[in-house]
Each structure stands twice: as C-alpha cells, then as structure tokens.
C-alpha cells in the first residue's frame, strides 16, 4: 500500500520546498518530490533558482564585480594592483560550492521540519477515493492535497536549440570554462543582462540583440534610460528593434544573421551565444492527463486567484502558473497555499512583489511605472533623487542612478518606487513595506533615515514628490 501524506509537493524549488515546510509547520504530514541531481547523482534541492539560476548567477556576479573593482577602481582608493588575472576554474568552483551549501541547507530544513523527501520525478498516476496517487521517483505515494511546483524551462530560439556548449541557456551560461573573446546575447531580459555583465567584466566583448524597440520595456522608462546610459558607458553593446534570423555554427564559432531597426541585414560573429528570450512552464513528465489536470495553451497549469486548479485539493504555484516568474513570488504562493489548506487566509499581493536585476548598477522596482499610470489615466506626482547627491554613494565611489517615487496626486499614496543604482535590491524593501501598509510619500519623507546611508536617497525622493528635497 502506498504511503499516504496529507500534502505532497511536486517540485523542490523555492515555491515547492517552502510550501512543504509550511504545511508541516501547520501540522500536516508533508512530502516533497524533486528530481534535480548534483554532479554525483545525489539530490540537489532548490530547483532552477538554486542550481542554475538566482544563486549561482549572483555568485558569479560577485566574483566578476570584485575583479572589475580590482582592475578599475581600487587605484582610486590608493590600492595598487599588479599582475591582475582571473582563474575562471576557481571562480566556477566557488560558484558550485555556494550552490552546494544551499542544496544542503534545504535538506537540513526538511529534516528539521519533518518533511519527507523523495528523489526523482513526480508524476500523477490516478485519482481514487479522494486521494491522488503519485509516482515519486522509484516509489508510489498518495496524498489528499497536491501542490504542483514544477517551475519553468528556458525558451529556445526557433531553429537553434540549446547545446549548452555554444548556444547556451542560463544553465550553460553559468558553466563557460573560459572568458570568450566575443559573446552574443539574444534578449535583454534579466538573465541576459546579468550574464552579459559577468563576462563583460572579465574581458569579453558583449553584444546584446533585443527584438523590442525599447530597452527593458517593463521597467519605468526614466529608470531604463538611466540604466542603458550606464551599460553603454561600460561597453555593453545593446542593439534594439532587431529581428534575429539564422544562427550558423562552425568550428570557428557562431554567426547570427539579423536585421537591425532600420531593416538592414547584419551578421554577428561570436564564440558563444546566450539565448535569453523568456521561460516556459515545465510540466514535462507530470502526466496531468492521468487525473484531468487542465493546462492552458502555453502549457501552464490553470489556476484561480488562490492557486486552485480545476481539480479538488490540487494546487499549483510559482513559474508553472500565471504571474511573474520570480522565486520570491513562488515562495509567497507556497506559504499562502499551505495556509489555505489549513483553513487560513493566505494572501499574495501581486502589486507589492519587488523586481530586481542584479547588474551594476542594480535595478529594482515595485508597483506601477510612470507609463502604466499614464496609460491608465491615473493622476500622479513624481519625485526623483540622484545618488550623485548622496554622501554614502560618494564614499562608496558609486553615484550612478537615482530613486524615483510615484504617488497618487490626491491621496499621496505610493503607487510605485523605482531605483537604479548601488544596492537597489536592498533599498527596494522599504518601498515594499510602505506600499503593503498603503503608506504615502509623506510618510517616508517624515521617517528618520540613518546618515550617511544610501537609504537617505529614498527619503529624499519621497520629499521630491512634494518638491522639497533638502540635499539637491
């Protein structure tokens, strides 16, 4: 007889493992199924985020930023460096160590919270008697409630499938064994810009081909323009409005045929090509038809606002459902679903989910952009404050960018906060908290911020909404 659980989670990424832990905390018998393997064939919990996404990319970003600081900025501090070089193998080994530490950390959390773990692919077998039978690797288990958290996969370029040697997804981009002389990126999304930044800092000539006519179209336009100025200055070549054609591979490398924004035919020769044109929901091997689980035309699991599927007691969260493909969004949905199963009122506010691009400068935002407010006809006030007028930013030697507040013209409620500059990923949290409590720009303007700190730029931008900055 199959071992029975109250809650079984299929997928051990950020949404899945958090959902399993929260379910166990709420008194349910919980299990998690995950098939990721490490180099030795053992379990590698954490999904795409931990293994080939958020965590390893940040490790490489940190390493490459240190290298760039040593080569270009240490001299400003009176630090002399000679014979500077990069050991790519060592850098990749450190990245792998960081990943392994996170893998082991999740294993520990499962033991601590009494979550049963099954290593292998999870797939539906049948539904019978109010229970769902699930294949969990080599075993078969059953559950009253099932949470599908199977994540997403990189979208390949039509006609140029990933080989992870020359045509790379985020996976292969994290495993390049040496600094390529010329690196091409198709798509200027988060993954493309972050990986492009890593290899540019280490010496690669990087060209980004973007189909859209605008740079970072989902970002506030003023912030995106500021970011592009910084990237242009760094030497990151970004071509907008292109149409990519055939990708040809040879012993010499790759050639990408495309037309530019003027419609002129062009060719880009590169050693490696990273394709970053979005991600698709992963339901490979899930066997949804066995129980009648409905998917949409894109292959994502169809859910309502509370992450319920068309089946009783079957839920889905994270990248495999609608909404932004962000690890922290998946985590919040995982907690909310576990609490809903327990009869509580789990809640996720999509409007206060922060977005971050970990380039240098960092880009972070929450809420609505100025172009969205204009399109919706919302009357608003805007306030900005540049980091060049911030004492801590000057001391850091990084004064690129600004903080921008958007507030309702009548109520002064904060509608959006957008940051490009140093430590934007950390600074945005204040804005998230403020918006979750429906604060006004005046509230932030009245709060005492430590001096000298980067967060003073947040206060000053809030003051700027009322045109009363104190330091600019």
TrEMBL record:
Binding site for FAD: 58, 122, 150-152, 319, 325-328
Gene Ontology biological process terms in this record: 2-oxoglutarate metabolic process
Catalytic activity annotation: N(6)-[(R)-dihydrolipoyl]-L-lysyl-[protein] + NAD(+) = N(6)-[(R)-lipoyl]-L-lysyl-[protein] + NADH + H(+)
Residues of the Pyridine nucleotide-disulphide oxidoreductase dimerisation domain: 353-462
Annotated FAD/NAD(P)-binding domain residues: 5-334
GO molecular function, one term: flavin adenine dinucleotide binding
Top-tier EC class: oxidoreductase
Keyword annotations from UniProtKB, A to Z: Cytoplasm, FAD, Flavoprotein, NAD, Nucleotide-binding, Oxidoreductase, Redox-active center
InterPro entries: Class-I_Pyr_Nuc-Dis_Oxidored, FAD/NAD-bd_sf, FAD/NAD-binding_dom, FAD/NAD-linked_Rdtase_dimer_sf, Lipoamide_DH, Pyr_nuc-diS_OxRdtase, Pyr_nucl-diS_OxRdtase_dimer
Compartments (UniProt record): Cytoplasm
Residues forming the catalytic site: 451 (proton acceptor)
Co-factor binding details: Binds 1 FAD per subunit.
Enzyme Commission number(s) from the entry: 1.8.1.4
NCBIfam families noted in UniProt: lipoamide_DH
Protein name (Swiss-Prot/TrEMBL): Dihydrolipoyl dehydrogenase
Species for this entry: Ramlibacter tataouinensis
